[in-house]
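Project outcomes to date are best conveyed with an example. Our students and postdoctoral researchers have been running inverse folding experiments weekly, and each run begins with a structure described purely in tokens. The record below, which covers 260 residues, was selected by the lab manager from last quarter's runs and is presented without edits.
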């Protein structure tokens, strides 16, 4: 049973986060302050310090929630178990597209890319918070909740890539056989640890490059750089570009992805 006090506390925390996100939209992360949030909520600033020790503590919570929400959308889009969701306090995710375990790695990757884009477009403030410019004066706690949350996003994005590689469908471009430095080896080790299976350096580097490409295309749209040519959204361009990229590594989607 949830007590009235627990319910009121949860509601206040939800209101604090919603108000803080509104401040981020208007002033940016470096303009966020607990005093301003408290003023808009009509509560005392010292009262908010019972929930968050300062601006950085609140930012950490917002960043972790954003990663978790994105991870939950990606998880459900791949037909994952709803019981594996993060449990953060918000409306349950409802991805517009889904690709179950029986879908091909190419189709699962296509749906995953579209889900990533749809989430970013629907949550531009949260997307900017986790993937935008670094926040002046802020450093995420080492090994803290933001690390665990971002790892959920990474592991979900990696899943269909590794599935394609294990099935023999994904063809790693020869360029990734080059000497990629110590960073690539470290990346391989981290990915292997996250997935619980060894992957080659070339696959790890290829996956990182693929995410960077996806992130770049989505960011240009979310931050308004395509508005001059696609004022209503660049989905046709995005779908064509994703299909071309997947085909270039041997992953040929056959699914038709309807507009969200």
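After processing, the design step wrote out the following sequence:
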């Amino acid at each position: 049973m949830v007590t009235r006090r627990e319910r009121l506390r949860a509601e206040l925390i939800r209101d604090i986060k919603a108000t803080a996100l509104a401040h981020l939209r208007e002033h940016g992360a470096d303009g966020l302050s607990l005093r301003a949030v408290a003023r808009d909520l009509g509560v005392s600033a010292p009262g908010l310090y019972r929930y968050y020790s300062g601006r950085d503590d609140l930012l950490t919570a917002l960043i972790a929630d954003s990663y978790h929400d994105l991870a939950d959308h990606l998880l459900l889009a791949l037909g994952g178990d709803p019981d594996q969701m993060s449990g953060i306090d918000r409306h349950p995710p409802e991805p517009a597209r889904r690709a179950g375990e029986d879908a091909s790695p190419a189709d699962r990757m296509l749906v995953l890319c579209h889900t990533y884009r749809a989430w970013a477009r629907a949550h531009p403030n949260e997307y900017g918070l986790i993937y935008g410019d670094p926040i002046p004066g802020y450093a995420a706690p080492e090994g803290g909740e933001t690390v665990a949350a971002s790892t959920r996003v990474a592991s979900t994005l990696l899943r269909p890539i590794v599935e394609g590689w294990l099935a023999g469908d994904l063809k790693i471009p020869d360029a990734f056989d080059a000497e990629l430095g110590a960073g690539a080896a470290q990346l391989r080790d981290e990915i292997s640890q996250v997935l619980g299976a060894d992957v080659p350096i070339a696959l790890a580097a290829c996956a990182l490059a693929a995410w960077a490409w996806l992130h770049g295309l989505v960011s240009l749209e979310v931050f308004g750089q395509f508005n001059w040519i696609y004022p209503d959204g660049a989905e046709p361009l995005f779908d064509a570009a994703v299909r071309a990229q997947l085909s270039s590594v041997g992953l040929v989607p056959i699914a038709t992805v309807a507009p969200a």
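The chain has a mean pLDDT of 86. Residues 34 and 54 are 7 Å apart (CA to CA). The training component of this project remains on track.
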